[in-house]
Design a protein that fits this description.
Elements lengths: L1 H15 L2 H39 L1
Helix pairs in contact: 1-2
Length: 58
């Protein structure tokens, strides 16, 4: 959601010449990208944990 919101803010800022709004949009997009990367890392860690747990059951 932050990515879409960020793109909209950035576009609005570009159209209106509002550099602050444009920068806010870029920041929102960066936030979304970071959150996505952290979420992916968490899912991978859970997968490793589950994999190790299954190895212990054998």
């Amino acid at each position: 959601m932050d990515k879409i919101k960020g793109k909209a803010k950035e576009a609005t800022g570009k159209l209106t010449g509002d550099r602050r709004k444009e920068a806010e949009g870029k920041a929102d997009q960066a936030k979304a990208k970071t959150e996505g990367a952290l979420g992916g890392a968490g899912e991978r860690a859970k997968g490793v944990k589950d994999s190790l747990k299954n190895d212990d059951d054998r």
